[in-house]
Amino acid sequence: MKHISLSNIKIYKVEIAIFIGLIVSIICCFANVVGQSEDISNHILRLHILANSDTEEDQNLKLKVRDEILSSFDFNYNDSSDLFEIEKQVDNERVNIEKVAKDVVEKAGYSYDVESEIVNMYFDTREYDNFAMPAGKYDALRIKIGEAKGHNWWCVLVPSLCVPAANGEVNEKIEDAFSKQQQDLIETGCKTEVRFAIIEAYEYIKSLFI
Q1: Is the pLDDT assigned to residue 173 strictly greater than 90?
Q2: Helix intervals (H) in the chain
Q3: Whether the Cβ atoms of residue 125 and residue 132 lie closer than 8 Å to each other
Q4: Is the bond leading into 164 cis (omega within 30 degrees of zero)?
Q5: Burial class (CB in 10 A: 0-12, 13-18, 19+), 180
Q6: In what order do the strands lie in the sheet with 152-158?
Q7: Is the pLDDT of residue 51 over 90?
Q8: In terms of C-beta density within 10 A (0-12 exposed, 13-18 middle, 19 or more buried), how is residue 105 classed?
Q9: What is the span of the domain harbouring residue 107?
Q10: DSSP helix/strand/coil, 81
Q11: Number of domains in the chain
Q12: Most confident of 16-20, 33-37, 88-92
């Protein structure tokens, strides 16, 4: 019978303790990252504009619709933290939003229909220069131009980051829109890529059961 020394037993105990500590740390990290991601998605309304097609003309038209909507409507709801109430206000504006978009389309010489709806939909991880939104299901004001088969443009409508996004200045506004923990999550970099990989894996597994 092989003799196991007391020193070897102590080593085994240390190794087991380190392994358990590592597992606990991974679980805590996973729970924190997923929790922060879901907190972000539960307090955000995105704007999602789909172009008729991927032709240069249709893509340019999409951006004209975007610019006119953002300049015609005030989506700054900083006085309210209730996303449900905010969405009701946005929903009440949808007829006017469609009219503004339709006017842009017609003035550009097109006869495309314009439709809008508030949906809950899955978004992949999306990046700005130094800022990214984790993958997941978000509520969105979706505007469809014509057949809506072209590439989309999106932004964070609430909190109000759409105008900064359109002007390329979004990074100057994220400090006002997100908590410090959320900023740590969405700032791009190696650490963020690992966190987003965790989120994407979680969202994929979750989608298998929903």
Answers
A1: no
A2: 6-41, 56-72, 83-92, 94-107, 162-166, 174-177, 180-186, 190-207
A3: yes
A4: no
A5: exposed
A6: 114-123, 136-145, 45-50, 152-158
A7: yes
A8: buried
A9: 38-207
A10: coil
A11: 1
A12: 88-92
Contact of 76 with 160, CB cutoff 8 Å? yes
40 token code pair: 């972000």
Whether the pLDDT of residue 62 is over 60: the answer is yes
Query: Which range is least confidently modeled, 22-31, 39-48, 158-167?
Result: 22-31
Report the alpha-carbon distance of residue 158 to residue 113 in Å, rounded: 26
Nearest-5° angle of CA 30, CA 196, CA 157? Answer: 115
Q: Which residues contact 187 (CB under 8 A, 6 or more apart)?
A: 130, 131, 132
Residue 15 lies in a domain: no
Residue 182 inside a domain? The answer is yes
Sequence-distant (≥ 6) Cβ neighbours of residue 7 within 8 angstroms: none
pTM to 2 decimal places = 0.68
Report the candidate in 138, 150, 68 with the shortest Cα–Cα distance to residue 102: 68
Residue 17 belongs to some domain of the structure? no
Category of 168 on φ-ψ map: left (φ > 0), alpha (ψ -120 to 50) or beta = left
Establish if 128 belongs to a structural domain.
yes
